[in-house]
Amino acid sequence: MKNLKYKIAAVLGSVICFCGHQVQAQNIFVDLTSALNGGNDTGTLSINAPAGYSYSAAAPVVGTTWNTFDVVPVELPVGTTAGTYNLFTTSALQDSVGSSLSQTLNISETVTATTTHANPTTGTGENVIQPGGVMAQAWRNYNNSSGFYITYTIAGLAASTPFNLYVYGGTTTSGQGTQVTLAAGNVLGANPGSGATADTTQNYNGAYGSLFTSVDGGTTFELMASGTTWLELEGQSDASGNFSFEQIGTGSQAYLNGFQIVPAPEPTIFALFGLGALGFTWMYRRPRR
What we know:
Blueprint: H1 2-24, E1 28-33, E2 42-46, E3 65-70, E4 83-94, E5 100-111, E6 121-124, E7 137-140, E8 149-155, E9 162-168, E10 179-182, E11 194-196, E12 212-213, E13 222-223, E14 230-236, E15 243-247, E16 255-256, E17 258-263, H2 267-285
Parallel strand pairs: 1-3
Antiparallel strand pairs: 1-17, 2-3, 4-5, 5-8, 6-7, 7-16, 8-15, 9-14, 9-17, 10-11, 10-15, 12-13
Helix pairs in contact: 1-2
C-alpha cells in the first residue's frame, strides 16, 4: 500500500509537469516589421521588457523571442487584380524562449478590386520606451476601407483548445489602430469574436502608439489600458488545430503591429494541479506508523 501511494503521487506530478510543458511550447509572439531582418523575409528579434515590467508585451508570459515578418518583400504592387494572395506560407516559428516549434504561420491577403496602392504597406509607432519593441513598426492594410483584408493563421496547434490572442495596433498618429475578427471556428462560446484598438490616448510623455506608460515620470513602466494600443480576445483553435483571424476594419483601423497567441488556463489543468497537491500533501503528512 505504501508503494502504491508513492506511485499515485508520482503519476499526478508527472501529469502536471507534462501539461505545463505542453502549454509553454505554444507561446507564440509575432512582430510585423519593415526591413528589420537584413533583407530576409522572416527572422527573430529579442524584445526586452521596459524597467519595472515583467514581460515584453501584454501577454503575462515569460520570454523575449519574437518571430519577425517583413512586409517589404511581399507587398502586392499597384495593379494587382482581385483574388487571394499568399504572402507567407507555412513559415517556421519559435516559441517565446527561442525553441523551434512544429507550428507554422500563414499570411494571405484578399484583394477585392484592382489595387491603386501597394498593399500592405507600413506604419510606425512609439518606440522610445521600448526601442525595437512590437509597437515600433506596423503593417498597414492600405485598402482597408475598400474591403481588402489580411488573414493570419497559426497552424499545428492542439485541436479545439482555448487560446488567448493579444493584438497590438497603433501609430504615432492619434486614431490609427487596428480591428481584427476571429474566424468562425475560433470563436469560443459567448466571448467576443472581434475587437479594435483606438490609439486615441497619449502615454505619460504625450506619445500615441505606445504600449507602455509611466506613473513616476519614466523610472518604471506599466501597460497602457486595454483597448488603447492592445486588446485581448479569448478564442479557441478549431478541430484541425488552426487559429485564424482577419485584419479588417473601417477608416483608420488598418495598422497591425503584431500579436501573441498563448494557451488559456484550462480548468482541467488546475484540477490536475489540485489533485497533485493533495496527493503530495497526503503522502508527506499522513500519520506515520
